[in-house]
Please model this.
Amino acid sequence: MTRFPGYPFASRWYCRDGLRQHYIDEGAGPPVLFVHGNPSWSYLWRRPVLAMRDRFRCIAPDHIGMGLSDKPGEDRYTYTLAARVDDLDALIEYLIADRGAPERGWTLAMHDWGGPIVMAWAARHPERVARLVVCNTAAFPNPYGERARPVLRLPLWVLRETRLGERLFLRHNAFARLATLPPLGVRRPLPRAVRASFLAPYDRPEHRRAIQRFVQDIPLRPGDRAWPLLHTTSEALAQFAHLPTLIGWGLRDPVFDQAFLREWQRRFPAARSHVYRDAGHYLLEDTGDRFLTALRGFLCE
Model:
């Protein structure tokens, strides 16, 4: 029995600037890059990797400060969107140069913060990208404008700006805990061992800093630190609109709601959409084999 159920993968490590980034690299064939968001880790992608590694090379990194990667203090790492993109760029260059990964033909699968991260990377290397898989994420400014949805404004302000938010993140791990409970992250309860696996990397306050910084880095307006990079990434999306694209969306997501889905569909009018009315933010947990079947069919065409 593995430490994390459904995750029987060999751990691999890439060291850069004295920090170790964990990733899994399973199977052989055309590369599929799975990029997680906040507050998850590569465990999110365990079922797609298991389902696809017979025909594809499945690569899923853990961002620095998350999952099984190192969790440095802020004196050693900046915890910004730009740093995440640089990390991903360095990892893929390493995989190409030293681990035999191809330069081209990459499928990019993204969820939550994985969208801005991997699409900012794609804007640097558009020639490498072959297909997109989009799951409850964004790579463009908030479609509601400079302010969050009304229902989220107060919780987001508390989390980003107050000492209570600091305590909720670091002392109580509230953000990660709530994200693995109905109705916020999922619509049906996770098995106890699966929920424990999502939470395991964030077992003490100093291991939760990345979760907090991701929320504080959400770019809502031009003055926010991550805004310029998000805006540039948004402007670059048009060059990928011709690529085969699969959209998988849980409609019960309290953050990435139908407005975000419609924006993806507007920008990628030829995309194939699979929309699930009974699924929440963690689409892969709520849809069982339904989205996996759609994903495999899309990749195997």
